[in-house]
Amino acid sequence: MRAVQIGVLGIGLALAGFGVYMAQNYVQQTRQALAVAQARGANTVAPTATVEVMVAARPLRYGEPIRPVDVRSVAWPADAVPPGVFQTMEDVVPDPDRPRVALRAMEPMEPLMAVKVSEPGQPAGITAMLTPGMRAFTIRVDQNSGISGTLRPSDTVDIYWTGRGGQDGEVTRLLSSGVKIIALDENGDQDRTFNGIPRSVTIEAAPEMIATLAQGQSTGRLSLSLVGLDDTTAVSQIQVDSRSLLGMETRAAPVAERCTVRTRRGSEVVMIEIPCTN
Predict the structure, then answer these.
(1) Is residue 104's pLDDT more than 80?
(2) CB within 8 Å of 195: residues ≥ 6 apart
């Protein structure tokens, strides 16, 4: 009887020791797995540095004044800040009596950028949309100017001139390629689609090109050709006259007939030109 009790006690102690061993092994494996997961998390989910960026607090439309209640500050990833954003309320509204004006439509949470708003106190006119160093020029258009359909400011066009080109009659020449439209009938709202034919198109160009266009508009007709949205093809100089249009070769100018006679002057023979007769 005593031997049976001792045997049962030994078996119990053995089972208890095995249980303690298994528990310690499980705890150790759990700690190792937790340490690996934390290390992986530290490598893949590192905290991102942020900066304050001013965004629209409500939908803003072209021409609307921007007040302090129309914007708010949000945390923006520092490595993804768009160029030209405003980072403080003082930058957006330096003077409440002279607010900026939206030059483009903006949706809530869209960053406010310098290209989307006017200068403080400046209206949403054509001058507010000009790139520094560029000038605006208005071209009169009609159904014969090559522009129709759906247009909007920010579209680009090629400009052609047609006028008298000497003895070959009218000539059509490419004056400028990829010119940006900034207004249609003096309206610069880029979110407004113009259906039909506008009375005038205002473009943006360098002062030298403005002089060329002014001369072209006064001496002939200017035509516009719409350029595709993603078209970056470089266009070389193009000129077409009536002969090239019809595939006719340009005739060389006739050579004037010359008549001469030989005469001797001492020991020298010279050629003297005389009028030609039939």
Answers:
(1) yes
(2) 149, 150
pLDDT at 178 over 80: yes
- CA terminus-to-terminus distance, the chain: 162
Q: Which residue has the higher pLDDT, 41 or 57?
A: 57
Ramachandran assignment for 146, one of left (phi > 0), alpha (psi -120 to 50 degrees), beta (any other): left
For the chain, where are the alpha helices, taking DSSP H only?
2-44, 89-92, 207-219, 242-246
State the pLDDT at residue 207: 92
CA distance linking residue 133 with residue 127, whole number of Å: 12
Confidence of residue 240 (pLDDT cuts 50, 70, 90): confident
For 123-151, give the secondary structure using H, E and C: CCCCHHHCCCCCEEEEEECCCCCCCCCEE
Q: Give the angle subtended at the CA of 177 by the CAs of 134 and 213, to the nearest 5°.
A: 60
For 50-124, CATH gives 3.90.1210.10
Burial class (CB in 10 A: 0-12, 13-18, 19+), 93: buried
Rounded to whole angstroms, the Cα distance separating 111 from 82 reads 8
Rounded to an integer, the average pLDDT of 192-212 is 82
Q: With beta carbons less than 8 A apart as the criterion, state whether 60 and 25 touch.
A: no
Cα–Cα distance measured from residue 183 to residue 256, given in angstroms and rounded to the nearest whole number: 56
Return the DSSP state at 116. Answer: G
Strands 156-164 and 150-151: unpaired
pLDDT tops 90 at residue 32:
no
| pLDDT, average across residues 231-251 | 71
* Domain locations along the chain: 50-124, 128-246
